[in-house]
Amino acid sequence: MATIEINFDGLIGPMHNYAGLSPGNIASASNAGAISRPREAALQGLAKMKRLMDRGLVQGFFPPLRRPGVAALRMLGFTGDDHAVLARAAAEDAVLFNNICSASSMWAANAATVIAGADSGDGRVHLIAANLASMLHRSFEAPETFAMLRRIFRDDRHFAVHPALPATPHFSDEGAANHMRLTTAHGTRGTNVFVHGASRGSRFPERQARRAGEAVARLAGTNGLHVLQSQAAIEAGAFHNDVVAVANEQVLLAHADAFADRDALMAALDRAVPGFIPIEIDTIGLDEAIRSYLFNSQLITLPEGGMALILPAEVQAEPRVWAAVQAIVAGNNPVNEAIVVDVRESMRNGGGPACLRLRVPVDAAARAAIDPRFLLDERRWSALWRLVEAHWPEAIDARHLADPALWAEVTAAHDALDRFLTEGD
Ligand code: SUG
Question: Helix count (H) and strand count (E) of the chain?
Answer without folding.
Answer: 16, 17
